[in-house]
Amino acid sequence: GAGVSQSPSNKVTEKGKDVELRCDPISGHTALYWYRQSLGQGLEFLIYFQGNSAPDKSGLPSDRFSAERTGGSVSTLTIQRTQQEDSAVYLCASSSQTDSYEQYFGPGTRLTVT
Amino acid sequence: KNQVEQSPQSLIILEGKNCTLQCNYTVSPFSNLRWYKQDTGRGPVSLTIMTFSENTKSNGRYTATLDADTKQSSLHITASQLSDSASYICVVSGDYKLSFGAGTTVTVRA
User: Fold this and answer.
1) Do B43 and A102 touch (CB under 8 A)?
2) What is the helix, strand, coil percentage profile of chain B, to 5?
3) CA-based diameter of chain B, in Å?
4) Distance from CA of B20 to the nearest CA of A (A)
5) How far apart are CA B69 and CA A75, in angstroms?
6) B65 or A40: which carries more pLDDT confidence?
7) Contact check, Cβ <8 Å, A102/B89
8) Beta bridge partners of residue B106, listed in sequence order
9) Mean pLDDT score of chain B, rounded to an integer?
10) pLDDT, tens digit, for every residue of B39-82?
11) How far apart are CA A66 and CA B49, in angstroms?
């Protein structure tokens, strides 16, 4: 079956604009993760969804960042009033269970804030 | 401070040669350690996953080792190929969160 997909693959936006990034996890995967990968940096955990449980938002860097997961499947990461430091690759991953199980990553969305 | 440190930051090797990448971690509690390969413009792809009780695991020409006592892991690439050029990321899991190293960029030249 299909892997994790993300859209758009690239997004260029002006500082101050809002952006929405989409993630379609692998069908049947209950866990979904968002990460940010800045140039030359390791991946940074942003948010974690598991089934119908309250999401772990502890990695979100500011209140300009929010994410939702509708129907336990598709997720949208929203960044409001984008800043230049938000420029990064945003990666989504899903897994059938938590932690001990394989996380499958999408190709990422490259966000550039000008 | 990053809980997962990788070395070297980058390396260049000739096709057919071997190389070893290092990963030291301080993540606690420890559940498992993973090595991922990330091609340019792609998401990471898992190479190996090792739990506390495993000290070596192979995936083709990739062999990972784990010393949970010293909290060190290595990834050995044997007989490198041009397609091995990528970033190799060490990932340590404690709970459901993963701690990522910054990666080692490997460039294989003909």
Assistant:
1) no
2) 5, 55, 40
3) 42
4) 19
5) 39
6) B65
7) no
8) B11, B86
9) 92
10) 988 889 999 999 888 999 999 999 999 999 999 999 999 999 99
11) 31
